[in-house]
Every structure is written in C-alpha cells, then in structure tokens.
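> forwarded from #structure-qc
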C-alpha cells in the first residue's frame, strides 16, 4: 500500500500557532495530561492519553504517536493520524536518528531531506516534524515520540522544551 497526498476526510490540516498561543496551549495540555495520568503506571495508557490530549490542544499536530524500541528497531505504538510506518530501523529516517543519537530532532521541512534515508515519507502530507527520545526509569531508550504537521516550520524550541519535560516526567521519573 502506498501513501496518498490526498488529505483524509477525518484529518484536519494543520494550523500553526504564534509563540504565545503555543506556550498557552502547551500549558493547558500539560495540566490535562498530569490530571489524567496521576498515578498511572501503564506506558501504553500513558502514550494513548498523551497523543489524544496533545492532538486536541495543538492544532498543528497532524500525526502524533510513539514508536517503541523492540528487537533493536522501532515499532509503531499508540498514535493518532493516518497510517504510520510499522517498523523503522535506527539507521533510517528522523525517528531512527532520534533513537540512534538519543537527541530531539526538529525538521522544519521534511521534503528537503533525502527521502528513504534521512526521512521516511509515511504520509506525503507531513511537511515538518519533531521527534523526541523517550527514556525509561533506568535511563534506557524505550521509544521515540513523533509529531508531524502539514505545514513547514511548525516545531521549535517551545515544542522541544514542553515535550522533553512532559515525557521525562511521565516515563523517566516514575
């Protein structure tokens, strides 16, 4: 099955936010996430809840989800959006680079990257992306958190700051 550039009927195109509005949206989302995940220990439930709340509060989130570390590669976990790649080797794409380097990746224009190697186009509507490594309580990489937008330049240091702190709070500091 190949990806189509036609926007699925059930997905809204992204809407970028100004810095102040983005900050406010993240602050509200973090309150909702913390309230819903208080004392939750199941990682799958945490991932599904985080996806749902962030996609609700941040209108530039087109695809949001987790790729979990399994058998020395990434396998799709809970997500919201169009069909995601099922498996990603650490040697391929932005998610693979985030896992390999254990460092957040911000991509202002996905289509400027070498397709198939530097970027895997699961959905041609994705124009920009942020991928954040997710660590477990012992500091081991357990997943990467991937967010795509249908607009270029959607992600910045505000996204990075909030996502790294929120993921650290709910997965590393348990």
């Amino acid at each position: 099955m190949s990806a189509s550039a036609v926007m699925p009927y059930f997905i809204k195109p992204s809407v970028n936010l100004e810095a102040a509005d983005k900050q406010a949206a993240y602050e509200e989302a973090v309150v909702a996430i913390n309230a819903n995940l208080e004392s939750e220990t199941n990682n799958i439930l945490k991932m599904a809840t985080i996806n749902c709340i962030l996609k609700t509060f941040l209108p530039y989130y087109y695809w949001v989800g987790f790729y979990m570390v399994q058998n020395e590669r990434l396998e799709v976990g809970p997500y919201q959006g169009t069909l995601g790649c099922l498996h990603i080797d650490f040697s391929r794409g932005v998610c693979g680079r985030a896992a390999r380097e254990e460092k957040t990746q911000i991509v202002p224009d996905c289509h400027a990257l070498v397709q198939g190697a530097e970027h895997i186009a699961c959905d041609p509507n994705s124009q920009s992306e942020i991928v954040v490594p997710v660590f477990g309580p012992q500091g081991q990489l357990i997943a990467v958190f991937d967010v795509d937008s249908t607009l270029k330049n959607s992600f910045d240091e505000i996204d990075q700051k909030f996502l790294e702190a929120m993921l650290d709070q709910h997965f590393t500091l348990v």
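QC bot note: Residues 27 and 162 are 8 Å apart (CA to CA). The chain has a mean pLDDT of 90.
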